[in-house]
Amino acid sequence: MQALLEAARRKRSPVVVGLDPDPARIPAEVREGVSEPEAVRRFCLGILEAVREEVAAVKLQAACFERLGPPGMEVYAELIRTARELGLPAIADVKRGDIGTTAAAYAEAHLRVYGALAVTVNPYMGADAIEPFLREARALGRGGGAFVLVATSNPSAEAIQGAGDPPLVERVAGLVAALGRPGPGGYSDAGAVVGVTRPARGRRVRELLPEALFLAPGYGAQGGGARDVLPLLDRRGGGVLVNSSRGILYAYEGAGGDYRDAARAAARGMRDELLAAGVGV
Amino acid sequence: MQALLEAARRKRSPVVVGLDPDPARIPAEVREGVSEPEAVRRFCLGILEAVREEVAAVKLQAACFERLGPPGMEVYAELIRTARELGLPAIADVKRGDIGTTAAAYAEAHLRVYGALAVTVNPYMGADAIEPFLREARALGRGGGAFVLVATSNPSAEAIQGAGDPPLVERVAGLVAALGRPGPGGYSDAGAVVGVTRPARGRRVRELLPEALFLAPGYGAQGGGARDVLPLLDRRGGGVLVNSSRGILYAYEGAGGDYRDAARAAARGMRDELLAAGVGV
């Protein structure tokens, strides 16, 4: 995950912009007269260009491209490529969870064919579902890795992830600790998705994963604020990338004006808020 | 899931053929001189045509198409369309697990855009990750649904799915029971993926889900046999679709001759073996 941390330090920003494009919320001047995939393509390219100096990385929500059929996957490929050219490493938010040759095929697809630096992975099938992604990231040697879903930010997660004593999240965190290997900067190549909406849960996961990079959803639209990130920080006061999707993409809806200017201002505001609250990079 | 059951009864077969194409194992005469996506396309079309009378349905392993980039998704679309024309409902084995609008986008992608009848879904994020798939299947009204991963057949699954007391699988089974709605034939639109490699686990899941259609991996290549399916049967002696992928696709490697003939013979043999063991449709 070294490449993500380096990007965060270079920009002095722990912010990840999430590309979850919803065609209905793309400004009319971008989407009129063109196909849905083309509207999504133009909109997302505009966002990447606008926020490139304000954010550490970009997270692409694969579902939003998958629902556009094969042309959507062309757009997905182009966005990952363009992001890299702009100095923005891409995290493929695919949450895949399968085993053996199937997991290896997903890892090959998103890390090698589409060229993301890191992916999100679902641990329900156990170590078999995680290892192939780490193997592919190691073979590529680009300082990437996999973020394993540990404690997600959505309301119904607790019924599954909080089950048992100790709760399932702790068992999954143990798996992440066991499977990861430390990179040159000290962080493991197995990171964790840990939402900002349950601080006590987050603090406990950090105790179990002192060397993991966290990817934290739930900021902004899902109700979390800058102070909610603090329990997730590591002993160096960093180690957390904070994602915002709708809060940046659709900032223009409240602010008016050009969507790119609004997105840049929103990303910058979020970065400043996080840094001011004590979230380091 | 009514449409899957009807297909099983029409063919008198509980067999599902899994399309997990591995380009290296496609017969040389099919793959020579053409691109990988084209080789996969030809091979899979040949399989569909060969086994159409022997199997109830087809399960497409999305990863194998995703790793071929956008052209692979064109092949995936064509195979689902062709399968339907051949009277084979398609199960999109995507194991997606995300929430809210993202899950809705995945559901739209695979059930509506690509046109599968059912999908596999990962429950790690809770009810939020399952409901959007059921909603989309209901809106489409084609008698399809979602198979939720409950007890998978892989070696490392137990470390996660067996955690807690009662174990996590039972909690997930409870979720499936709560979210599903009965269809016209009595089966719920929320089915379950239950491997054949842990019979005691499977029997317990059946107790908790008396009205669910099960999709059972682990037969053949993963070590399960016809008798291992018996604990999964419902009180009518049916309710289980048994998947085989490699055992059918690559039957020609052992048997020699045309891969289509070998696949047909393997599918027929599996069907006869299951029926003889008492697996009803």
UniProtKB/TrEMBL annotation, chains A, B:
InterPro entries according to UniProt: Aldolase_TIM, OMPdecase_AS, OMPdecase_type-2, OMPdeCOase_dom, RibuloseP-bd_barrel
Catalytic activity of the protein: orotidine 5'-phosphate + H(+) = UMP + CO2
Keywords: Decarboxylase, Lyase, Pyrimidine biosynthesis
SMART domains on file: OMPdecase (SM00934)
A Gene Ontology molecular function term of the record: orotidine-5'-phosphate decarboxylase activity
Domain named Orotidine 5'-phosphate decarboxylase: residues: 14-266
EC number: 4.1.1.23
Segments passing through the bilayer: none
Enzyme class: lyase
Lineage: superkingdom: Bacteria
Biological or metabolic pathway of the protein: Pyrimidine metabolism; UMP biosynthesis via de novo pathway; UMP from orotate: step 2/2
Active site: K95
Classification via PROSITE patterns: OMPDECASE (PS00156)
GO BP: 'de novo' pyrimidine nucleobase biosynthetic process; 'de novo' UMP biosynthetic process
Annotated NCBIfam families: pyrF_sub2
Family to which this protein belongs: Belongs to the OMP decarboxylase family. Type 2 subfamily.
Designated name of the protein: Orotidine 5'-phosphate decarboxylase
Annotated gene: pyrF
